[in-house]
Amino acid sequence: MTAAAGTPGEDARARPIRVAGEVPGLFAPLTLDLVPGRVTCLLGASGVGKSTLLRLLAGLPTGVDFRGTVETAPAALMGQDAGLFPWLTLRENVGLGARLRGERADPARIAALIAAVGLEGFEARLPANLSGGQRQRVALARTLAEDRPLVLLDEPFSALDARLRLDIGAMAVRLLAGRTVLIVTHDPAEAARLGDRILVLTPAGLTAHPAPAGPVPRPHDAPGVLAAQAALTDRLIA
């Protein structure tokens, strides 16, 4: 991560991040703990409750009968849709959070974040004039601009083609280094590449799966990544 992106203070990074409870009919009693400063990938089939857990950590409505407790921290959320305002330029979208709070975004920091995601020279473009991959990189820069100790990624790469998924996923974990990150995904390959920890959610509950050796992001064709991908796929289809 560039110095301009900033990292949260040690106190913020060390606070517990935990969901403990159940949603009858969705998932059994579980405890989800996030390790401070690390990337946790939450893997599961569609409809199993992954996004519900993420929304609980984000403090957002879930529409379900959750019975339990949540310990969380100020969070930045990046979803499947880039969520860009079509009438704002790229630069204005990156600094949108500050604008909505009635604050003035730091122009130098916004410029550094735009450069960090490889979009220098595109600052004045509107979202309609950006590709899907470029829009997701704008969303990543906006997420970084929030400078939160907790970052929640809800399948943000799922609509991208294979090459962009690899490139932008790797970019995200590099730029988010040092933050507590939860990536929700249904893709075993993504979990094997990007997770310091891998958790698998099924209707029966939450279980850990050994992560491949080596720092994230891992090469997609590393033997350990391929083996973990196969094992995780087996768990999902069992």
List the helices and strands and how they pair.
Blueprint: H1 10-14, E1 17-23, E2 27-34, E3 39-43, H2 50-58, E4 67-71, E5 75-78, H3 90-94, H4 96-100, H5 107-116, H6 132-145, E6 150-154, H7 162-175, E7 180-185, H8 188-194, E8 197-202, E9 205-209, H9 223-237
Parallel strand pairs: 3-7, 3-8, 5-6, 6-7
Antiparallel strand pairs: 1-2, 1-4, 8-9
What is the N-to-C order of secondary-structure elements (H for helix, E for strand)? HEEEHEEHHHHEHEHEEH
- Order of adjacent strands in the largest pleated sheet: 5-6-7-3-8-9
**CATH-defined superfamily:** P-loop containing nucleotide triphosphate hydrolases
Number of helices: 9
Binned strand content: 15-25%
Q: What share of the residues lie within helices? A: 25-40%
Query: Can you tell me the residue ranges where pLDDT is under 50 for at least 5 consecutive residues?
Result: 1-10
Q: What would the CATH topology be?
A: Rossmann fold
- Helix/strand/pairing category: alpha/beta
Protein name: Putative hydroxymethylpyrimidine transport system ATP-binding protein
Family: Belongs to the ABC transporter superfamily.
GO molecular function: ATP binding; ATP hydrolysis activity
Organism: Paracoccus sanguinis
